[in-house]
Amino acid sequence: MDEMSIRQQAEFDGKEVHGLINLGFDEIDDDSLPLAKEAFVLLLVCINSHWKLPIGYFLSNGLSSTQKQTFIKHCLSLLHQNNVNVVSLTFDGLSNNFSMAKQLGCNFDDVNSLKTCFPHPSDSNQEIAVFPDPPHMLKLVRNTFGEKRCLFSSEIIDWKYVEALHKLQESEGVHLGNKLRGGHIKFSKQKMKVKLAAQLFSSSVADAIDYCHNKLKLQDFIWSEATVEF
């Protein structure tokens, strides 16, 4: 499931107005409804073959977590009636998506008691696994790390070591077996590129920082252990 932004525009085809919110119910057929600004799309992806099938979309100007979980339950019930076995639900990191998952029966509040499945609305013996979209979650972690610059665990995880590695490699004209470049540091105009986030968090970047600290004994990399582990 995902939400896609659409152009806000109403058009009349001679019979009805298009471009207004439409959640699949019997809305008033006139132009008193607000313009839709996004489409809530449900896509079925086969896990044992190679096909994808859009199974529904709803035009809205923003859905609440309660509305989303209602759509998900209804969709799962219809698929169950047609002998389609759904095993998981994937969504991006929007906060109300996690609220929706909690309403469905998941629990993300305590890492020691995570519940990442919820019961199937039409079969109490079956559970649906929840998978936050990995590329999107990776970008969110990178964005938070780059913008906040410091994250706190038992020790400080610091963005300055990534910058120090980039500066060192640029000044020496060599790269320590990694793909770290300026685009990884100044990523604000390329936030959608997953590979920049993946390469930033790669083991090769961690190994390079560790090498600068433990082998080269460079002052700029003192106390970088937590960042390397992260």
UniProtKB/TrEMBL annotation:
Residues 136-230 form the Transposable element P transposase-like GTP-binding insertion domain. Residues 1-105 form the Transposable element P transposase-like RNase H domain. InterPro entries: TNP-like_GBD (IPR048366), TNP-like_RNaseH_N (IPR048365). This is DNA transposase THAP9. The lineage of its organism: Eukaryota, Metazoa, Ecdysozoa, Arthropoda, Chelicerata. The gene is THAP9_88.
